[in-house]
Amino acid sequence: MNATTQQTQQHRTTTAGYWVPGLHIEESSIKVPLNWAGNTPGQNVEGRTIDLFYRVVDAPEHVGANLPFLMFLQGGPGGASPRPMSPTSDGWIAEAVKHFHVILPDQRGTGRSTAVDGRTVQSMSGQDAAQLLKMFLADSIIRDFEHLRLTKFGGRKLVTLGQSYGGFLTLTWLSLFPNSLAACFTTGGIPHVPADAEETYEYTVPTMQRKTEQYYERYPQDRERVAAVADIITAASEQGSALQLPNGDELTVPRLQTVGQCLGMKPSFETLHWLFDTAFRAGAGDVPNIGSAGSAESAGSTGAASSQVDPQTALTDAFLHDVAEQTYAKALYWPLQEFIYANGELEKPIEWAASRVVAKHAQFSPDARPLLFFGEAIFPWMFEQERQLRPFRAAMDLLMQDTHFGTIYDADQLARNEVPLQAAVYFDDMYVNSKLSLDTLSRIGHSHAWVTNEFEHDGVHGNRVFKHLYECARDRGDLRNL
């Protein structure tokens, strides 16, 4: 056993360990600087610190074995690493623990790492909150992971698996610390370089429309059900008493449209179909008609007269609960959403890129029928209507006009890249456009793309995608030096 292995094993045996079915878990945390300016990964940390939490997951037979380490880079932004219930609860884990010790870090601000949410920023000025949020982007995240690699894993080269935004982080790591990684896998996570938020939405907004249309083609009866829900919401608002979600947020038609953020996953069509199946309280849950006076009549009722339904009570509590749950504002996911495309000094501010692009497409109007759904997109109204996001509003207004961000991609370094990169590119991906991904990969050294339309954006969570990527890299000889 060499010195690096001894150091790594010594670290791992001093952390807390326990078991979940089929897996051994060790947990630990380290201190990292809140602001990496003036600090260098691997050296003593100066200034204010935050906690970075991580787990190491092993197959029972591999605890203490001399295996390479694979770090999972979670999607997001603002996503914590998965909490495995078993090797098969998140499909890629079962394959990964056959070959690796698996590191599951909670990115700064998420999970058990020092939290950042609305309560963190509610007492801050907009300027202070804006500066804080900029410290939770890829340049800081990767420096955290590089510090973890150097201080707790003996400086040995890691393998990475980046899902979605985790692929963005992969390119940041390859740009900033190209000698730290032995091999990389990405799934639905190759951004366009050069990065541009507006360009991204020019591609993804039409995909949102296409996915909605495919949903209605699969369940044509839902056109009427979705339209009726939107009409009820509008009627209630016109009566002067907007509908409320269980958490107290106002339910507007644009908020309803954001349930479409699931459309890039499987089984999204069924998720939406069953959501709207239980929307209506009257009768057997039939579609009501909205009268000119703002009342609702059951379109499926029989008899001499149909019962009128008040828009205030037309929707079931279960439906309102599920809408609130599906559109819940994750703490960093929405505030950071458009700034993951900000690389260094920008030529122009981002200025609510998704909102500007959607405004060019009248078919997304809340009054349009059939009603179209939004995918992964943020809008100014979210930071007014949603209580979890309101504390971020002042910071968002400032950041949307900002042009000074940390460097996250180095195109020249990526062109010279020597680390094997195996990327799963989902042809129909709603979140990360495949055309833009392939254009980027064409300019990254030692990169290989597997393009497939068999999976949606969440394909890695099954049992086939990572296995296929691993075998492709292995058979090419890209893993021979692990």
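[next item in queue]
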Amino acid sequence: MLKTDLDLSDEAQAMSNEFGLHLVSGVAGSGKSLLVLYRARLLRQFFPQKRILVLTHNRPLIHDLEARYQRLAGSDAMVEWRTFLSWCMAHWASGEPKLHPIGERSRSQLLSQTWHQHLADTVISERMLQEEIDWLKDRLLNTRQAYLAADRTGRGFGLNETMRGRMYDAILTYHRLLKEQKLADWGDVPRRMWLALQEGRANPVPYDFILVDEAQFFAPIWFEIIKLILKPNGHLFMVADPTQGFLKRGQSWLASGLNVRGRSSRLEKCYRTTREILDFASQMYQLRLPGDDEALVAPHVQHMPGGIPPQIIGLDSEQDEIAQVINEIRALHQHGTPLEHILIVHAEWQGADRMLGRLQKEFGMAAVANPKGVAPGKHIRVCTMNAATGLESPIVFVMGLHRMWEAEQSVRISEEERAELVRDNTRKFYMAFTRAGQRLAITYVGNLPVVFQGLASPSAPSAQSV
């Protein structure tokens, strides 16, 4: 059986009572999110009049955390639960025009137009341009001079002074195109909020306690805003995964404006998943990134329960992939598996949308949902890999990996960018695989990569046999 998601380990229990602790990092499934929940409950018990804010970076996780807290603490409604960006929008300065963030498809078109105008004759790809824009907006870099002087350590690709100038010209063009369409990036939301706070146009009531889950995804400018809305003697508690977010690039907390030296601890035991699933994910990681083992925070596996080896299902087409997963889920449901025990993680948002539609047609609209928009309930969850961080489920299907592998083989990217993409993808794979508590099924369209051929378990039974 999967351990109940509200049981706190002895290791984590000690930390939940240690109010001087600021940062906890740990292996996937070690109970980091539970620490946030228990910390929030204890703070409410000890300081019922204090203002408490819980933040994370995506909607599925904040919905899940709030639902679990209500199970833990009853009908307590005095804790504020927000994604960071939704907090910004909820506390927008009075009279400040609302921003209209651009959609992914439209943004891709603007990025492509900008890239062709400024960078098509260079080794810089559209993906690198997008990442550089996001990196700049995550920081308080507002002038050409500030950008040219900025420390880009950990960016994954280098730029000499000339290329930095061309990149900044491209960024200015992209901003102009956005402005002409009266649109903005999501990265513009915290920049506007920071400016409104600095100028006194936004005046949210400050918080006594701010708790951050998945803190490795928080940008430097986000932390600057958090410091502005936290009372002078307030308490900031963060949990983070060292294999993801800015930590995966070797960047430090100090570079994000936070000094956690002497104020951190690690959780090294995994309680979520089975030994077979964690071994599988760890071996995949080590095969693809043999020099990066330390980032895994080597888990203690001796105490972990055994289970069924992960299943890798090779398929000929994306249509076959969809049909296979639907057949597997249908069989699981017929054998009594509750729908809410199933999570589907897709590599791309387009694939997640297609899968969501097909499953709703098969099982009914109410039986399937994207966790970004709804609270946890008695339904199958379907989300992208980027939205899956922090989630967990007894049974997980991971789809669309062939798209990520194909991108790694593209002849249009440099070897430097290829290495960075392999590193990013590997950490996403590890995160997705370790969402599973009991069963992990991976579908792959086309010839299996060598890594998967070595890890595949031919004796692994179908998910239908669960």
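[queue empty]
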